[in-house]
């Protein structure tokens, strides 16, 4: 009798949860797909099957899912979603396909227009990586958009790297202004190679920051800095699929010729003195707007240090997060 009872209990424990876990995993995967598409819907950006896999929101998933599993789940016709021409989007949002294609063409043109500018920037001293971020990184730029950059500098040389960058952009009138941003270069984020962990810049449930980081598109990477950046931010993999890093079209990468590389090394040699870094720091702080200095290091929008120079004010990260959560509540009832 005891043996029979134990056998029955064993079957209940070992067999029933197997089916339950399978159903639970399938349900969680469907919810993760929905969470991903709802987030990108805020930016009028429908996703392909591969992009759903690449950007999958995986915070609540208990295991990793491969691309065939994602594809199968999408083809199972989730009631909240629709598809057209290979793109998936929320019901009633068919117009996003046209918007997506238009912005993809705009983004391609922006890369071509700014190619030589970015190539010259890569030759400036102590710049080790230049990554395109925000809308252009996702091929979702508008015609009037500027080009946002994330720049990694040599440790101890961040002020020198920023000085030459700003001087070059200013001379050629390439810095964005409120009335003129189209194809201008926004270089408001410099970070030192020895300070690649940037988790502390997040707010609570900061989905915008996570996808911002996930979509970095390196156009110049002197020594595989992107791999180091992702390694220093391994926490991201708990929230977003990071198995497939962004590898941009080779035509979009900037590769300085031998002459420009020599020029870069020459400028690094003549600027490789501590007093120059200190002098350029003092100069930039002196001419920096008081509003920036007054708000520096009071939060995460403006950071001024010898390892990070970040000047982003009036960001809408909270709005994107709250709108994402609001839409999910409506859809899930």
Fold topology:
Elements: H1 2-41, H2 49-54, H3 67-75, E1 81-84, E2 87-90, H4 96-113, H5 115-122, E3 127-133, E4 147-153, H6 158-171, E5 185-186, E6 189-192, H7 207-214, E7 217-221, H8 225-232, H9 258-270, H10 274-287, H11 290-295, E8 302-304, E9 308-311, H12 317-332
Parallel strand pairs: 4-5, 4-6
Antiparallel strand pairs: 1-2, 3-4, 3-7, 6-9, 8-9
Helix pairs in contact: 1-12, 6-10
What is the tally of beta strands?
A: 9
Taken as a percent bin, the fraction of beta residues is 5-15%
- Label the overall shape: elongated
- Given helix and strand content, the structural type is alpha+beta
- At the fourth CATH level, what is the homologous superfamily of the largest domain? Beta Polymerase, domain 2
| Measured distance between first and last alpha carbons | 48 Å
If helices are DSSP runs of H or I spanning 4 or more residues, what is the number of helices? 12
Give the CATH level 1 class of the largest domain.
Alpha Beta
CATH architecture of the largest domain: 2-Layer Sandwich
- Could you tell me the radius of gyration in angstroms? 24 Å
Which runs of at least 5 residues are low in confidence (pLDDT < 50)?
1-22
Order of helices and strands: HHHEEHHEEHEEHEHHHHEEH
Share of residues in helices: 40-55%
* Biggest pleated-sheet summary: 7 strands, mixed
In total, the number of domains comes to 2
CATH topology of the largest domain: Beta Polymerase, domain 2
Query: What's the rounded overall pLDDT mean?
Result: 90
Explain what you see:
There is one protein chain. With about 325 residues, the protein is α+β, with helices and mostly antiparallel strands. It has two domains: about 1-95, Arc Repressor Mutant, subunit A (Orthogonal Bundle); about 100-315, Beta Polymerase, domain 2. Helix content is about 50%, strand content about 10%. It has twelve helices and nine strands. The chain has helices at about 1-40, 50-55, 65-75, 95-115, 115-120, 160-170, 205-215, 225-230, 260-270, 275-285, 290-295, 315-330; strands spanning about 80-85, 85-90, 125-135, 145-155, 185, 190, 215-220, 300-305, 310. Strands 3, 4, 5, 6, 7, 8 and 9 form a seven-stranded mixed beta sheet that branches. A two-stranded antiparallel ribbon has the order 1-2. α1 (about 1-40) packs across α12 (about 315-330) and α6 crosses α10 (about 275-285). The longest helix has about 40 residues, at about 1-40. The chain is elongated. Residues about 1-20 have low confidence and may be disordered.
């Amino acid at each position: 009798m005891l043996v029979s009872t134990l056998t029955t209990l064993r079957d209940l424990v070992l067999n029933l949860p197997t089916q339950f876990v399978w159903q639970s995993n399938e349900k969680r995967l469907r919810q993760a797909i929905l969470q991903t598409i709802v987030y990108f819907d805020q930016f009028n950006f429908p996703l392909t099957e591969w992009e759903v896999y690449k950007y999958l929101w995986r915070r609540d998933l208990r295991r990793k899912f491969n691309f065939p599993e994602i594809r199968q789940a999408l083809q199972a016709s989730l009631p909240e979603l629709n598809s057209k021409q290979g793109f998936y989007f929320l019901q009633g949002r068919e117009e996003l396909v046209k918007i997506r294609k238009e912005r993809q063409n705009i983004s391609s043109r922006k890369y071509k227009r700014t190619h030589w500018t970015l190539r010259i920037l890569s030759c400036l001293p102590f710049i080790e990586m230049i990554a395109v971020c925000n809308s252009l990184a996702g091929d979702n730029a508008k015609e009037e958009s500027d080009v946002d950059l994330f720049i990694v500098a040599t440790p101890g040389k961040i002020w020198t790297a920023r000085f030459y960058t700003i001087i070059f952009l200013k001379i050629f009138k390439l810095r964005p202004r409120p009335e003129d941003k189209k194809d201008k270069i926004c270089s408001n984020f410099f970070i030192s190679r020895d300070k690649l962990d940037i988790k502390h810049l997040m707010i609570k449930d900061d989905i915008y920051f996570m996808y911002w980081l996930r979509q970095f598109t390196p156009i110049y990477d002197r020594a595989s800095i992107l791999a180091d950046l992702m390694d220093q931010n391994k926490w991201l993999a708990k929230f977003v699929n990071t198995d497939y890093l962004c590898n941009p079209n080779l035509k979009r990468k900037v590769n300085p010729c031998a002459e420009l590389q020599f020029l870069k090394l020459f400028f690094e040699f003549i600027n490789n003195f501590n007093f120059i870094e200190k002098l350029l720091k003092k100069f930039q702080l002196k001419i920096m707007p008081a509003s920036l200095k007054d708000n520096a290091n009071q939060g995460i929008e403006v950071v001024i240090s010898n390892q990070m120079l970040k000047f982003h004010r009036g960001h809408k990260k909270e709005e994107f997060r709250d709108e994402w959560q609001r839409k999910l509540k409506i859809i899930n009832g």
